[in-house]
Design brief:
Helix content is 55%, strand content 9%. The chain is an alpha+beta fold. Among the domains are: 78-166; 173-270 and 309-395, no CATH class. The strands form three sheets. Strands 1-7-10-5-4 form a five-stranded mixed β-sheet. The chain has a three-stranded antiparallel β-sheet with strand order 3-2-6. The chain has a two-stranded antiparallel ribbon with strand order 8-9. β2 and β3 (71-76) form a beta hairpin.
Length: 403
């Protein structure tokens, strides 16, 4: 069963992207201060970074196999389409491979160092404004800003990569290395792992997105999943990049939804408490003490568990998102930082084409299964969701540029 597939409505980004990430095997080894000897201590220290380190336990690294016909490609989970170009990025690649339990501590250390280096260059620039060296220090500050931006993007990418490896889901490698006779298949699909990061409400919206962009329903049969289709590489690249932005948008919108829900419940709780106090004030003194005991029992029931509670009337995430005005929609869908926007572009280009030129290597029509398309879309949505989390964390240590 074959289908002809075209994505004329897919949103367009200006890129499609790189070469395989090779883990840096340099001599530098990360050693936390005071050299903690056991993992428990490193775990406690890693809490400062906002993450929890996960031991690798000597397990064999999982792999993704992209096969087509008689040919196949095996890729280690410590590879990715985008190759870190900066020293911090290469260093963190080595830490992730050799000292995984220290990874987040090392990442936080690199972010702090980058922030200090940038701030120091800017400070020297302002101090020398009235001197003969003002022009020189201004240029040094500009170069340091560019250097730090490239480095922090690599750090963000490695943090995202860590999240995928924590799920034991390797990123799909550069597609040109995975195709045989214009045929692409990605196995194993890892659908369950990629769906497990979302809440039930968000997952329903993600499935709606998959159904809309590739035509595969959530209740599709195995036969439907492995049916083949055709798609241009350019359209596939646009679909992947757009799905990253969609995952980023869903994370932003769902976080906003949860915040508004919490504020609504807090307001409702305070309102119920105030109304109950007004009711008690109207009661005679003899009855007041009797009712007060029963009332305290009623108040102990968590909001949302009793019938008719405000929480039951809260909108589903899908309806909530559909109610966004254009300004709110744009604000949630647009990456907050220039580093995040650039990272989306670089990763997409690395996966589908040439990072330097920002265009696909070819625009040929390729044949693949709906299962492989779903795998790519789920990965892209997860990438966008992880990017939102990482961007928020990094910005607390290293101030990112507003987009």
């Amino acid at each position: 069963m074959e289908h002809c597939f075209s994505l004329h409505k897919a949103p367009s980004l200006t890129s499609f992207l790189p070469s395989l990430v090779k883990i840096y095997q340099g001599p530098r080894v990360f050693t936390p201060s005071n050299s903690p000897s056991d993992f428990a201590l490193s775990r406690r220290r890693s809490l400062r970074t906002g993450f929890t380190s996960t031991p690798f336990n000597g397990r064999k690294a999982p792999s993704v196999k992209a096969s087509a016909g008689a040919s196949h490609c095996d890729f280690s989970s410590l590879n990715a389409p985008l190759e870190p170009r900066s020293a911090p990025g290469k260093f963190l690649s080595g830490v992730l491979q050799n000292q995984r339990q220290f990874f987040h501590f090392a990442a936080a250390d690199e972010l702090k160092r980058l922030s200090d280096d940038r701030d120091a260059a800017v400070s020297r620039m302002f101090v020398s404004l009235d001197s003969d060296e003002a022009c020189l220090h201004r240029r040094i500050a500009q170069l340091k800003e560019q250097e730090c931006q490239a480095a922090v993007e690599d750090v963000m990418y490695m943090l995202i990569f860590y999240k995928f490896s924590d799920l034991r889901v390797p990123l799909v490698p550069k597609l040109s290395r995975c195709m045989y006779n214009c045929r692409l298949e990605i196995w194993p699909s890892k659908d369950w792992e990629l769906e497990s990061i979302h809440s039930i409400e968000v997952l329903e919206v993600v499935r709606d997105h998959i159904s809309a962009v590739i035509g595969l329903r959530a209740d599709s049969s195995v036969t439907d999943n492995w049916a083949t289709t055709e798609i241009q590489q350019l359209h596939l690249g646009r679909l992947y990049a757009a799905s990253i932005l969609y995952g980023y948008f869903l994370k932003s919108a769902s976080s906003r939804h949860q915040l508004e829900r919490c504020l609504t419940l807090v307001h409702q709780k305070r309102l119920n408490h105030r109304n109950s106090l007004q009711f008690l004030d109207l009661l005679p003194c003899g009855i007041k003490s009797l009712v007060l005991g029963r009332f305290s029992d009623v108040q102990s029931v968590p909001l949302g568990q009793g019938p008719g509670r405000q929480e039951k009337d809260l909108e589903e995430l899908r309806c909530y998102v559909m109610g966004f005005d254009p300004e709110t929609l744009q604000r949630c869908a647009k990456p907050r930082s220039k580093e995040a926007a650039h990272l989306i572009e670089r990763h997409s280009c690395a996966l589908f084409g040439d990072e330097q030129t920002g265009i696909p290597e070819t625009d040929e029509v390729i044949r693949t299964s709906f299962s492989s398309l779903k795998r790519l879309v789920l990965e892209a949505v997860a990438f966008g969701s992880f990017l939102w989390d990482i961007e928020e964390y990094v910005d607390t240590v290293y101030k990112l540029k507003d987009n």
